[in-house]
Amino acid sequence: QVLDGAGLDVDFHLLSPKGETLVFDERKSDGVHTVETEDGDYMFCFDNTFSTISEKVIFFELILDNMGEDGDDQEDWKKYVTGTDLLDMKLEDILESINSVKNRLSKSVQIQTLLRAFEARDRNIQESNFDRVNFWSMVNLGVMVVVSAVQVYMLKSLFEDKRKSRT
Questions:
Q1: Cβ-count burial of 73 within 10 angstroms (0-12 exposed, 13-18 middle, 19+ buried)?
Q2: How confident is residue 77, by pLDDT bands cut at 50, 70 and 90?
Q3: Which listed residue, of 21, 105, 132, 155, carries a Cα 20 to 30 Å from 81's Cα?
Q4: What is the pLDDT, as a whole number, of residue 149?
């Protein structure tokens, strides 16, 4: 997401480890991309060459799902449990509840981070508008002062006595 900069747009490239282009966005202000990955190094690039005069502030978040979660790791706890099937069932329910809470918490953290990025972008736009309004207000004030000075001068010139008096 582009937070600040002229046009609020940027090009985005995502390349696979084989060098294939997975995602190419031109002049977008924000985007969400989900990619099935394979082993290797991925390359992503935010390109601003079309607008070299203005700099951009960019927020991005890389979310890696299922990193390091193998099915064997999830089942290791079962070899330490002895007892009835009822006990196994309750422990599975507890593990499922804990995983559900963990997933929901991570999603809420992602949403809060995204909302902070939206807030930062909106704040930058608001500050830019504030500066623009102040500038044009000062220009308007200057024009009004000049117009009032010209009006006073014109009114004075109407009431001046143009005749030369002989005394």
A1: exposed
A2: low
A3: 105
A4: 96
